[in-house]
Amino acid sequence: MRRNAIRFAAATTLLALAAGAEPAVPADLLAVLTLKHKPCGSITSHERKGEHDYLVTCSDGHRYRVFIDGDRVKIEDK
């Protein structure tokens, strides 16, 4: 049940990003990373690669690709 809630929250947040809420993008991406237990610190930059696809650089040096694959939010280390 908890895993479904986390998936839903992460997917909802990423879908909101795609809807065009540009000023909130870094905060929303950070929320997704936090929900998925990925270390980040704060987001120093983000680049939109596709409709539901972002490249994120964190203050602690971590880089991630955050995207939707089917009905799931995926995060890849870069």
Describe this structure in words.
With 78 residues, this protein is an alpha+beta fold. It has one domain. The protein has two helices and four strands. The chain has helices at 2-18, 25-35, and strands at residues 43-50, 53-58, 63-69, 72-77. The protein has a four-stranded antiparallel beta sheet. Strand 3 and strand 4 form a beta hairpin. Helix 1 (2-18) runs antiparallel to helix 2. It starts with a helix and ends with a strand.
Write the layout of secondary structure elements.
Blueprint (H helix, E strand, L loop, with lengths): L1 H17 L6 H11 L7 E8 L2 E6 L4 E7 L2 E6 L1
Helix pairs in contact: 1-2
**Number of DSSP strand runs:** 4
Percentage of residues in strands = 25-35%
Low-confidence stretches: none
What is the terminal separation in angstroms? 30 Å
Structural domains: how many: 1
- The residue fraction in helices comes out at 25-40%
Q: Indicate the structural class.
A: alpha+beta
C-alpha-based Rg, rounded: 11 Å
**What's the main sheet like?**
4 strands, antiparallel
Number of helical segments with 4 or more residues: 2
Shape: globular
- Report strand order across the widest sheet: 1-2-3-4
Mean pLDDT: 83
Order of helices and strands: HHEEEE
Short structural description:
It contains 2 helices and 4 strands. It has 78 residues and is an alpha+beta fold. It has one domain.
Name a few traits of the molecule.
alpha+beta, 35% strand, 78 residues, globular, 4 strands, four-stranded antiparallel sheet, single chain, 2 helices, 36% helix
